[in-house]
Fold each of these.
Amino acid sequence: MTPTSRLSGLRDHDPLERRALVEEGAGLGPGALACLDPAQGLTLSQADHMVENVVGILGVPVGIATNFRIDGVDRLVPMATEEPSVVAAASNAARIARATGGFSTSTTGDVMIAQVQVVDAVDPEGARLRLLEARDELLALADAQDPLLVSLGGGASDISVRTLPTRTGTQVIVHLHVDVRDAMGANAVNTMAEALAPRVAEIAGARTLLRILTNKADLRLTRVRAVFPADLLGGAQVVADIEAASAFAEEDAYRAATHNKGIMNGITAVVLATGNDTRAVEAGCHSHAARDGAYRSLSRFERTPDGDLVGTLEVPLAVGLVGGATRAHPTARAGVDLLRIDSARELAATIAAVGLAQNLAACRALAAEGIQRGHMTLHARTIAASAGATVGEIAEVAARIVADGRIRVEHAVEVLADLRRSSS
């Protein structure tokens, strides 16, 4: 069977049935995703080796986004999130994009940057030029720290140096560019920066201070594009309204903050589900949103000549398949297996596609009916559970509070009490 992300009616099954359908849809063997069961996932012993002072494990729901076709390949996407409507919204947007071929992506590569800070230079500009003259020597010294990375085709690729006026004097900042291949890259570039620091200080005739990667990964950009047909979005007026909403976020920081949060709803969920560093990715994306000196939207929606809507997104994504929790966490490994990806670039492409899909879904909801209607309907099940409903009671309580238009805990408590009286 050819793997497919089109699993219609997945929501109508219980979790165990869904898992079996997802395994089949992804072309995995039965039981391949068994570690997604809390009883078989991350153990307390494993957690104790991951971070300090471990006392327990926090569970986060993992849902599967369906319908994604990315660069011609169907992918079922794991999303770890506690927020209702996120998985359903991404899946629906992916279904709409699927009609025009899905999502197309491109990347600038897998280059991360390490910074070495030089302070107390007597001649900052002279130090800058001396460091540039030593480029080949410094690159060779960096590569010597990670021969395995070099053997895989990665390694140090360039050096740039700039002077930076600050309130404590002019500093000299060295940027080491490193192709980290399929790793997130933090350990590799940090090790190289540490190794370079003594020689950098000697050449500059000054003192080095900080030597660490930057999460502003603007040499590791992923771009994604998709066309959303007007008729599937709700017509020409919806397309025009989404475009107007996009223009609002492009120019207004208050709107851009919420607009980009919607993008990160999708991005962070996939980053977390695959064991990557959510904080690093979020820092990189938000710094990219402010790259021109003003905080703006990361995405853009425009009408095509045919009246459809084209969405584009560009984000820095420092994610990897080797090292860290991606290897140590069994659920993260299962998420990577489910995606059937072979490289960090494919993972980044998937993450960016989900971010764009999530963004389109939110903008469409805002432009067409307001965000609360759909969001609160899905949130009703959480409200019902918060009111004390059992597994067998949640669906009925949720349906009643939605029908009443009062999706609040206090009303759910009243409905639950009434339901129990009538059944006793």
Amino acid sequence: MVQVRAEVAYDCDVLVIGGGIVGLSTAYAITRAAPGTRVTVLEKEGGPARHQTGRNSGVIHSGIYYRPGSLKARYAVRGAAEMVKFCAEYGIAHAVTGKLIVATDKAELPRLHALVQRGRENGIPVRELGAPQIAEYEPEVRGLAAIHVGTTGVCDFVGVARQLAHGSGAEIRYGARVERIDRRAGLGVAVRTRTGDVVRARVLVNCAGLYCDEVARMTGDDPEMRIVPFRGEYYELARPELVRGLVYPVPDPAFPFLGVHLTRGIDGGVHIGPNAVPALAREGYGWGVVRPRELAGTLAWPGSWQLARRHWRYGAGELRRSVSKAAFTTAVRRLLPAVTPDDLVPTAAGVRAQAVLRDGALVDDFMIKEGPRAVHVLNAPSPAATASLPIGREVARRALTMLGSV
């Protein structure tokens, strides 16, 4: 057991667990808001942004999908503008490309119209397009109708994370996997890493992503949710000239996933995906990656079974597209009829850290909770990279308020 003594000499004021873009944005926001505050970041990998931050499609989301007034809506809209400004200020590769959301079936038209209304409520400029106008933006894309969202873009989120790490002035310790946490409400928090190092802090911030619920429990707080990992599998388009920018289907409102979409990245390549299939490990980037303890933890959570019972038809379709390239190609052809199986080249997958409640409900907004001397970020999947600067400021505000009261 790690011990915290009354005469403890603190190694830092705020200790952040997790060196993804949210953790590093938090460290950056703390030192900007309160210069002189000592911040340490513990990251288990050998560098920053190795998981959700570095394994997504690189899209700066506009915020059009999210419920007006929600954290996702407010932080994505604000964060998109701030992310473009941040990238421009520090010379990080980015582009504001706009995107199309395309309805390919009559049943999707009411949902497309609802997105127009939602976009306007969120203060996002939206242009409605008929079928002939789609070709003005994407000659190879087919659909019944579409909307163009001009504020969407792409950027190098790993480059952003590196700049946040550098600009924060925090002590960043890589290769520092957390093994034990001892919190004493009247004294502070002590964290032991796998290498045996002990870091003592006044306040702990948990930005551990795929392991945030485990870190919360190690701290002694009940997160009242579990992370259920969903793998998103991507292909790269062998004929990138077929796609000019970003093309999305109309999403299913019952799910936080956006469906298989086409993304021209900052490197000029076009990624297609992701789907969403259950991962057999928190960092299960392929079917061959199985961690029995983590899988058992997922299966032991009642919400996992409730989720499976409620949405098994949707899940079956995702699994079919995972194991069958032909099925995946068929899904892509709804948007891009010219694509063939030979055009799809497998590329790196990502894993979404999705919070699921005990009743099987998918947490559809960012979730930040507090405990004694601790702030926990418990649900921050997409669009968290886009929204990372305002999320970081909110977590920093809570941590600094807590720091001022201890």
Amino acid sequence: MKFTIKSKTLTAFTFLLLASFTASAQEIIEETAPEKTIDSTLTTGATKVDGVAAVVGDYIVLDSDVDKMILQLKAQGASLQGVTRCQLFGKLLEDKLYAHHAIQDSIVISDAEIRSYVDQQVEQFLQQTNGNMDELLKFYNKEDEASFREEMFEINKSNKLASEMKKKIVDEVEVTPEEVRQFFNDIPKEERPRFGTELKVAQIVIEPKVSETEKQRVIDRLKEFKREVEEDGKSFRSRAAFYSDDPGSKRSGGKLPPMVRSTPRMVKEFRDVAFSLQEGEISEPFATDFGYHIIYLEKIRGQEYDVSHILLVPEISDDEVLEAKEKIEKIKTEIANGDYTFAEAALEFSDEKETKFQGGQLINPQTQDYNFELTKMDPELYGQLQDLENNTISEVLTDTDRQGNIKFKLVTVTDRIDEHDADYARDYLKIKELALNEKQYDAIGKWQNEKINDTYIKISESHRDCDFSSNWLKN
């Protein structure tokens, strides 16, 4: 989407996780007994003094916190091109302001949820060092895993508090149809948004069916694992490490990040079984979209459940793959012959339950409607659609599911809207979203200005030259 509405709306909602409705600080801090630490952004082994850069309410920002932020963003693959240290420092100040007032407003954060998220982060970071914890600790300049995890915990808890505070500020912000109309009318015609070409897309998916014999083989094997642990005293962890088809957990003997009742992350079928177990119990085999599992509930700590699992994925034979391909080719022929419309065939035959009851129509996960802007479309989907005319059907396409198993699909473009200047009636939902973003931005700006004035803030002399966009210096 190309447009030049008020720049604040764009920067507030699109500037990476570096987007800043703020900037910097207030009183000069007297430099006291700074601690020497390694500057982890340097490669020369040089050291620098790590002093207090700012105090925001109950929070302290150290000079090294900017370096840590840079490391985290780089580890997450974020681009820092054009981003200054002052902007990063301003983002830290902003987050501490939110976190401080989240605590004042009695916003509660689950420590178990934060530690679970840290576990996931560490696993992701380890993938970049081929599982080598020593390399990871060296990269982050930490002496041991415990101190690294504790620092990650504090960072993530502060970020979560900030996120919940911002959410609380904007949750009750709504826009009326009249406000949307006024917002649109206030945009000069030459500055109105220009929306790119949009497509409505439908698909039919046929998945090779696993034979009942293969399903039973997998179930029987899981039952045998359960029997070996319960009756023969064998290790659940060793069976998971050797036999589980879950690459993310088998290295840890099937152990998963702690599950928390109040913030479930796993699929419903998995949660229902895990939360029904007694401590020390192993479940019967059960199915999810990922395959067949057994769960071992190791310990219950209040709302937190320590679980391990073994996943086995049934194998699909070549004959079953061929049968699925022949089925979808037959469906394509029947649509071409007029026996079914595409929507009727999707309802009748498609194995994708999320789309079949809407005639195969895909829902855009970003906008929750049926329109996909061409320039923002998933590259793989774009490649499948770029040469299709409206209501023509693609050749049979090969795709893969979560386990890497083959599935086949047909796609079609059911409608196409060419690139155009914003039209109030046709693009109402998009314009409403822009109006809501602006109103939320204004609410956050107002809240921030009030809280900066009401909050104890000190900024060190070395950071007072930053060009801040908010009145952190209370001038």
Amino acid sequence: MRITDIISKKRDSLELTKDELDYFVGEVVHNNVPDYQISAFLMATYLNGMTADEASNLTNAMVETGEVLDIEGVSKFSFDKHSTGGVGDKITLILVPIIASLGIPVVKMSGRGLGITGGTLDKLESIPGFNIHLSNEEILKQSKDVGAVICAQTSCLAPSDKIFYELRDVTATIDSIPLIASSIMSKKLAIKNKALIIDLKVGKGAFMKNIEDARKLANLMKDIAIKHGRECKILLSDMDSPIGYTVGNSLEVIEAIEVLSGKSKSSSYEITKSIAVEVLGLLKNISKMEAERMIDDTISSGKAFEKFKELVKSQGGDVSYIEDTSKFNLSKIAVQVKAESSGYVYYDALKFGEISLISGAGREKKEDEIDYGAGIYFNKTNGEKVESGDILFTIYSNRDKNEILNEIEGSYKISESIIEEKIIYEVI
């Protein structure tokens, strides 16, 4: 085979065979394809799309050119979860210990934040000593001993994805549904477990802006999962507004701790509970009512909180920060914004993602340093009744106050009446 023949076939909107995709991805992994040819392939795919079989075969090739981590060997009830990212999305921090405390092992490989989307690994690294870099052997051992792991993806799992993703980022081919699906699913299928739950965000602060495109992506990912023998459910959840009452790294860890310890029931908890219900139904055929009871019980009994402490300790984190969140070093208060009228407050996820980025909580380039203590605390949560003069939100930052003030305009509105909103649109 020749790489140029594969590129020209895709350029001409012809369907690539499994053998052609296996060859192409294999050559990419072995560094035998220059960046300009990979970029040409990505652009041809972006412009002409892929059939469901092509996307599935591309995903399979990406998995098979790396190692596979067999978590299913630890327990027949093992599962994995993926989120397409959002503003204030600390769901993984809450979900993993809840599910693990119910006897279902979870190995969650997460990423860092880039742009307005926060990264689970950055949040965990705000806990002093927390080690995100585990070997396959360490992952398997901790999944057996603790039943919960949250770590960085190892380089031997779906190695082609990193190559493709970095080039997609600089060739304007990020928002291609088959390329998004193969990227997500290759990393998920490289961890062999019983089931997969995907939290696909939809809205202003999400990658998928509308429900129609989200459904296309969800159905393609579901098709790939089925073709690879993996049970899968995909939740389409709202990302028009930030999740919960914090955005940032240390701030989101604090919120996750407060939810797990039963001190708070924010929208973060509601989304987590919806996902957990689907997990229990998928793996153990438990009814929604019984699943909700189990989830509430594991929090009220303290088991979920203890499991989170166990996870943190196992990965070298300082558990004293989990037991006493006042130890987290937040940035100085840069701005407190007050309501100028009474009504119901609604926040724009995209704008608050940008405010978080400007505050220092995010990074514009992968090599940027982040301020773990920066971010936003919502004194009044989305949809809450407010009176004129109430503090709506507090921005923590060590950066220039005027730069932050410029971003606040248009970030929220106060409505005279309640606006009907949904947290979960549908489950596929």
